[in-house]
Design a protein that fits this description.
With 548 residues, the protein is α+β, with helices and mostly antiparallel strands. It has 17 helices and 21 strands. The chain has a seven-stranded mixed beta sheet with strand order 15-16-14-13-19-20-21, sandwiched between helices. A six-stranded mixed beta sheet has the order 3-2-1-5-12-11.
């Protein structure tokens, strides 16, 4: 290994593109961020532009390298992670519309788009064999329901289609010119069977039965599927010029954003050990927080868990089975509750005036109330919130669940707003506990959560998640663990490490530790039981009203 070589990891999230440049010890030397556009033409619709995203990717890649003062020739590899959004291109490689308006630049159906709920339910009713490997049922966040929606509702787009990509695969194709799909993206979102045979397989009978047999015509979707971190080749001359790099820079097969976070986090489980031990993962959960939360558990064993995605073979850590849980609304649920309060404008103005975040001001109010009352988390014992405003990803696996507030009053002050905010943080944490209990019932022994994301900057959020789950939280040495995970793939593709295990162990490490407080356990146990009861109550109400 040459110590003066560097790699770049690029992360395309829901609202921005980011890039970070790393040395071979996993130290990020510089980063850059650029917002990306989103259109929401109808309720539950969300669309983006592949051209807008590529422009943002090029800007941040150039910017992070230039800020670090690293020569383009010293960048040995680049790889990408991205949301599991569906990209549609015509036969000429140009964008084609995924909307009724015919706006071709809006050619991406974003992961959070729920337009395909009916198609999802139709597929799930078929009881297909591939559904065993997605927790028993698809989510509208996955790609085959979106594709079925496109073929049904926009036949003109379907007729023009030349390629359909998961976003991470679009970025590696745009960079290298090679159309090979990531084992991660197709196993997790397209029903590819990673465990079938030496290299996995598509179940073509499934696509025929759901009416998508022509998906593979003309290489709209290809058979070439490769493990993450595999070298696709160098950058093309065009992409190298746009990215500010060289054609000698290796392009590594990419990964879904949450899964990149898993790679960037879980290497810390091997910190200080002579060599990686895959059994260490039985006790560890990678928790990638953000707009949504993603929970990644890996095992040598294949575990079928109703309502939890997977088991996916080789979709994150090579040779390991992945079970993936999560929450469709997490950070977005907390932000919605803050913004939905009458005090929201006053809070925003106060935050601007005091040069603090709204979370800091709300945390100050919570601390004041706790000191005044001589209490801890129980100051919100009478406020119960179900935060699934856009359905439950897992372990219920039901896109029809919606949010519940129990305990509202007419108070319009910051006190009421802070209490509601605090109760929502606890509620999101109970959703994590619900997933962990489902994983542990299936054989995992999760005791530690390796956590990254915006919530980790909030000490109240961190302590409540440790307390509510009973798990120790370990923060990463490199806070930008998702970018680091893409960097791990870039380093592997460039041959700077012999495999992903070695890159994870060398480039990852742990930072601060947050332990659960035993004195809060009884409170959280009781409130969690009531949290689960809200699910059952809502389901009973839905069933009672279904005939109307």
């Amino acid at each position: 290994m040459s110590e003066n070589r560097y790699v770049i990891g690029v992360d395309v999230g829901t609202g921005s593109a980011r890039a970070g440049i790393f040395d071979l010890n996993g130290k990020m030397l510089a980063s850059a961020v650029e917002p990306i556009q989103m259109w929401k033409p109808k309720p539950d619709y969300a669309e983006q532009s592949s051209e807008d995203i590529w422009r943002a990717v090029c800007r941040v890649t150039r910017a992070c390298r230039e800020e670090a003062g690293i020569a383009a020739e010293a960048v040995a590899g680049i790889s990408y992670d991205a949301t599991c959004s569906l990209v549609a291109l015509g036969r000429d490689g140009a964008p084609i519309p995924v909307n009724d308006e015919g706006a071709a630049e809006r050619n991406i159906i974003v992961w959070m788009d729920h337009r395909a709920v009916a198609e999802t339910e139709e597929i799930n009713a078929g009881g297909y064999e591939v559904l065993k490997y997605v927790g028993g049922r698809l989510s509208p966040e996955m790609e085959t329901p979106k594709l079925k929606w496109l073929k049904t509702h926009l036949p003109q787009t379907w007729a023009k289609a030349g390629k359909f990509f998961d976003l991470a695969d679009y970025l590696t194709w745009r960079s290298s010119g090679v159309d090979a799909r990531s084992l991660c993206t197709v196993v997790c979102k397209w029903t590819y069977l990673g465990h079938a045979g030496e290299r996995g397989a598509w179940d073509h009978s499934y696509f025929e039965r759901i009416g998508l047999s022509d998906l593979f015509d003309g290489e709209k979707v290809v058979e070439d599927v490769r493990p993450m971190g595999s070298r696709l080749g160098g950058l093309t001359a065009v992409s190298a010029a746009e990215l500010g790099l060289t054609t000698g820079c290796a392009v590594g097969v990419g990964i879904i954003d949450a899964h990149a976070g898993g790679l960037g986090l879980l290497g810390a489980a091997w910190e200080g050990k002579r060599e990686p031990n895959l059994d260490d993962f039985e006790y560890a959960l990678a928790f990638i927080g953000g707009t949504s939360n993603c929970l990644m558990a890996v095992s040598r064993q294949m575990r079928f868990i109703d309502g939890v995605w997977g088991p996916y073979y080789g979709a994150m850590v090579p040779g390991m089975w992945l079970n993936e849980g999560g929450q469709t609304t997490a950070g977005s649920a907390i932000d919605h509750v803050i913004a939905d309060h009458a005090n929201a404008p006053a809070l925003a103005a106060a935050a601007k005036r005091r040069r603090k975040t709204v979370y800091e001001l709300l945390n100050e109010e919570i601390a004041r109330l706790q000191q005044e009352q001589g209490k801890g988390p129980e100051i919100v014992k009478d406020i119960h919130i179900l935060p699934d405003f856009l359905g439950n990803r897992s372990p219920k696996g039901d896109p029809h669940y919606r949010g519940i507030y129990d305990g509202l009053n007419l108070d319009e002050t910051i006190t009421s707003q802070a209490l509601r905010y605090y109760a929502t943080i606890q509620a999101v944490a109970y959703g994590i506990r619900d997933n962990i209990e489902a994983l542990n019932r299936a054989g995992y022994r999760i005791r530690r959560m390796y956590v990254t994301g915006g919530g980790t900057k909030n000490p109240l959020w961190l302590q409540e998640h440790a307390d509510a789950t009973g798990c120790t939280i370990l923060l990463p040495k490199e806070p930008e663990a998702v970018l680091l995970g893409a960097g791990v793939l870039a380093a592997t593709a460039a041959g700077l490490y012999p495999d992903i295990y070695a890159a994870m162990q060398r480039m990852s490490g742990s930072g601060a530790t947050i332990k659960p407080r035993r004195e809060t356990a009884a409170y959280h146990r009781t409130k969690f039981r009531l949290f689960q009861e809200m699910y059952r109550q809502q389901r009973r109400r839905r069933e009672a009203m279904a005939r109307f």
